[in-house]
Task: inverse folding
């Protein structure tokens, strides 16, 4: 405020923008203090670049079964840095293109789960009477459904496809987000400024969209980053169990293939180790960033 | 904490229920969840697109007549409400249908496959709990030191791993062997074919077969325990009662064991009881990788086919497990900490 000369006219929009920029700067400073979070962010940037520029880094023809010219299960060499698979395709090419599937499914599934979770959580926190009770029960019921068996059944019934897998992960993973948002919403509802808004005649819709939603967004954001990690792990597991998209190469389908052609007993480590390492690195990156964000947005945690 | 409570004197204080009423409400809630699972289990398989007779009989049922016979055999030609009532009646009397693949009742299959899974997951959960809690306690108590940083890095890495991939790597290294080194463990199965599993020799044999899967699952599970334990112990470390305990002249070890850890154990109890409920889910991939004939392998095998009634049955058992574990946690919690009975 001291930077604004007394008497000069500043529109509320400018003020709001300025305040937002300030809080972004403050949060970034806090985030920068997290070595682990920065490491995660760096790893994430690397994999995103890999996914975006995949066709520039490796030749897409390497994915084509009919164009494979190399020997079967060749160990790493100067020509094929990470060796070849059981049909003579270079592992490195599949690895680079696999990052696209993992990141896409991770983010898309999380988006679905986040939207359902936030809407259900906010509504069950703000509605009263039967509506809230039913939504809360529903969340609790979905929470006890065993996640992997349900995802397996849904994937079997819906069929194997990129969107279906994301959908399956999305609709099975929202209850945890919903519960988190609900508890936040319940505490926000009791705060004085919302009481003031109610006294001034704010309707439920206005309270939720203008006051509660902006307040829970940081939590949603931090939680989302952790959900992406879980979604990527689930995609890998579903693909490994043979429910992945058969038309695309992902790290999970690579591992499934490696397992089924017996790469373990033949000692073809270059077919098993790299995809798994990629999964671990990406999931770890999302987890580290998510934990750092939680720290930044949750002052109670920061004191520890 | 007390300041927060004192600043909200206007908040309505919920009346605390007696333990009896608390138990009743939790049991009713669990029954509600169970009913929900039973209904979902039916509609998942009937309402979603796809005719079981077509999907199931893709290879075997060629003519329309064969398909009609199949539908009649499984009651699929009845109306939906009628099918639902039959399903309810069958489920409550323990008839979960017949496996298409094995041609035996699903309930027999499940009972048969339950023990290997319980043995595998039970052993791993207990080991993970003990080791995980220990790592969490030592890490939190020596926060920021080498042990803490190394153990946090290790647990986070294991936490980010698909547990079956860890299993594959362990098989490759310890069962198949690296280069000139031979493997020391079997690559899979519950026991060798030529040994009687009930003899003493057979038990050693089973233990040798279970060693790798148990190590894998233990590593996969312990991350959660140690992370939860570490953070809840860190919450306690700044509390006044620990300063009091030290002021009394208690040794550091005693302060930690008798005061801090005891109070920090509650969240870990919840995690452990809940993870018992996810027995089936946890075992699916590991049993597939190590080909251990348990519930997990049963459900992953049922995917190829698909063997609808087996999937339905294992799903019901898995969900019931979670609900029962949840109920147990709530009941124990209500006994330990009366504040939750509101």
Result:
């Amino acid at each position: 405020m001291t930077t604004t000369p007394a008497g000069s006219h500043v529109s509320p929009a400018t003020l709001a923008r300025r305040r937002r920029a300030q809080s972004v700067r403050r949060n970034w400073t806090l985030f920068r203090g997290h070595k682990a979070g920065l490491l995660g962010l760096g790893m994430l940037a690397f994999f995103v670049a890999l996914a975006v520029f995949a066709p520039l880094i490796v030749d897409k023809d390497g994915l084509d079964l009919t164009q494979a010219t190399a020997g079967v299960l060749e160990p790493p060499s100067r020509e094929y840095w990470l060796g070849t698979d059981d049909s003579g395709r270079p592992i490195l090419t599949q690895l680079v293109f696999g990052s696209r599937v993992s990141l896409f499914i991770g983010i898309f599934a999380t988006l679905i789960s986040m939207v359902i979770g936030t809407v259900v959580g906010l509504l069950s926190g703000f509605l009263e009477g039967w509506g809230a009770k039913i939504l809360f029960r529903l969340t609790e019921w979905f929470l006890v459904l065993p996640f992997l068996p349900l995802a397996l059944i849904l994937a079997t019934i819906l069929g194997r496809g990129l969107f279906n897998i994301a959908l399956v992960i999305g609709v099975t993973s929202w209850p945890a987000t919903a519960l988190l948002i609900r508890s936040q919403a319940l505490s926000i509802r009791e705060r004085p400024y919302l009481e003031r808004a109610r006294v001034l005649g704010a309707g439920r819709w206005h309270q939720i969209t203008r006051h509660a939603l902006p307040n829970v967004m940081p939590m949603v954001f931090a939680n989302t980053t952790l959900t992406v990690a879980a979604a990527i792990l689930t995609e890998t597991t579903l693909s490994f169990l043979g429910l992945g998209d058969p038309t695309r190469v992902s790290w999970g389908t690579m591992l499934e293939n490696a397992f089924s052609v017996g790469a373990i007993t033949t000692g073809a480590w270059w077919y098993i180790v790299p995809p798994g390492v990629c999964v671990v690195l990406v999931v770890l990156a999302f987890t580290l960033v998510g934990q750092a964000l939680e720290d930044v947005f949750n002052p109670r945690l920061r004191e520890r | 904490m007390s300041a927060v409570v004192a600043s909200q004197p206007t908040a309505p204080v919920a009346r605390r229920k007696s333990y009896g009423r608390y138990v009743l409400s939790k049991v009713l809630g669990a029954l509600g969840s169970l009913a929900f699972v039973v209904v979902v289990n039916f509609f998942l398989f009937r309402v979603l697109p796809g005719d079981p007779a077509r999907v199931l009989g893709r290879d075997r049922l060629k003519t329309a007549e064969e398909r009609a016979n199949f539908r009649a055999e499984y009651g699929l030609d009845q109306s939906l409400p009628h099918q639902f009532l039959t399903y309810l009646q069958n489920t409550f009397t323990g008839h979960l249908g017949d496996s298409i693949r094995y041609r035996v009742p699903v309930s027999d299959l499940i009972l048969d496959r339950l023990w290997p899974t319980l043995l595998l997951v039970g052993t791993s959960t207990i080991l993970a709990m003990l080791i995980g809690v220990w790592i969490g306690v030592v890490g939190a108590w020596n926060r920021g030191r080498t042990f803490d940083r190394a153990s946090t890095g290790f647990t986070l890495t294991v936490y980010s791993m698909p547990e079956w991939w860890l299993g594959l790597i362990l098989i490759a290294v310890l069962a198949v062997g690296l280069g000139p080194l031979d493997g020391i463990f079997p690559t899979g199965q519950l026991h060798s074919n030529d040994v009687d599993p009930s003899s003493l020799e057979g038990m050693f044999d089973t233990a040798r077969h279970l060693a790798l899967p148990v190590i894998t699952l233990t590593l996969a599970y312990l991350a959660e325990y140690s992370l939860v334990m570490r953070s809840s112990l860190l919450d306690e470390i700044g509390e006044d009662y620990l300063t009091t305990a030290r002021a009394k002249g208690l040794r550091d070890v005693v302060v930690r064991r008798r005061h801090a850890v005891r109070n920090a154990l509650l969240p870990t109890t919840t995690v452990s009881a809940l993870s018992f409920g996810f027995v089936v889910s946890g075992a699916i991939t590991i049993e597939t990788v190590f080909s251990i004939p348990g519930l997990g392998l049963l459900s992953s095998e049922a995917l190829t086919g698909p063997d609808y009634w087996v999937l339905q049955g294992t799903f019901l058992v898995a969900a019931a497990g979670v609900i029962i574990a949840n109920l147990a946690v709530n009941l124990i919690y209500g006994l330990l900490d009366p504040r939750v009975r509101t």
About this structure: The longest helix of chain A spans residues 204-243. Chain A has a mean pLDDT of 83. Chain A touches chain B at residues 137, 140-141, 144-150, 152-154, 156-158, 190, 229, 233, 236-237, 240-243, 255, 259, 264-265, 267, 269, 272-273, 276, 279-280, 283-284, 287-288, 304 (CB under 8 Å).
